[in-house]
Design goal:
The chain is mainly α and 192 residues long. It is 68% helix and 0% strand. The chain is globular, with a radius of gyration of 20 Å.
């Protein structure tokens, strides 16, 4: 693993030079090095995409693992269209919606469950939830493409060039979306 990305000895293939499409084909054949390179190429983008749907970092990390497991086991079903990231995003979105359904099922509480006594203690989770709700409300005012750029930059720590390359848009477009989104967020939070 230490030598990933370096020129390999003995004429072995340099996976860092392969497209995601080519890597996915190799993953379908059970190539673990190709899978590792595909993960390295896409994990930050995938995490940010999942986080933009789920809005909870721990759940997003859990789903990220499930996504890559599903990619590993389902790579043979991928139909080459030149857009492997779109196929991967579809898997991620489906797993996110499954998580929502699980959470809804788990959140069905009966009246007997609520019969405990109130202790009056400060709950830091509730205090943090208020801040989280304001942030989620602020993010919801953004257009999808603006939210995606903001989350890729702030949550995944991607540089604007990386975001532009990942989303296959010009750098100027990525910067414009980010700046427009930040102004919207600033105005929204100032009003709140």
């Amino acid at each position: 693993m230490l030598f990933m990305g370096l020129m390999s000895f003995g004429g072995a293939e340099d996976y860092s030079l392969l497209s995601d499409e080519a890597l996915l084909k190799k993953v379908a054949e059970g190539d673990q090095e190709a899978f590792q390179q595909l993960y390295q190429n896409t994990d930050r983008t995938m995490y940010s995409f999942i986080l933009s749907i789920i809005k909870h970092p721990q759940d997003a990390e859990e789903i990220l693992q499930e996504v890559y497991l599903k990619i590993w086991t389902s790579a043979k079903s991928y139909k080459s269209q030149g857009k492997p990231l779109a196929w991967m995003f579809t898997i991620a979105r489906n797993l996110c919606y499954m998580k929502f359904r699980e959470q809804k099922h788990d959140s069905d509480i009966t009246l007997e469950d609520l019969s405990g006594t109130e202790t009056g203690e400060v709950c830091s989770e509730i205090e943090m939830a208020a801040d989280k709700m304001v942030l989620l409300a602020a993010l919801s005012i953004l257009k999808e493409e603006e939210r995606e750029v903001v989350l890729l930059h702030t949550s995944a720590g991607m540089k604007h060039r990386e975001i532009a390359a990942s989303l296959k848009i010009p750098l100027a477009t990525a910067l414009s979306r980010y700046n427009r989104a930040m102004k919207k967020l600033e105005n929204y939070l100032r009003e709140e």
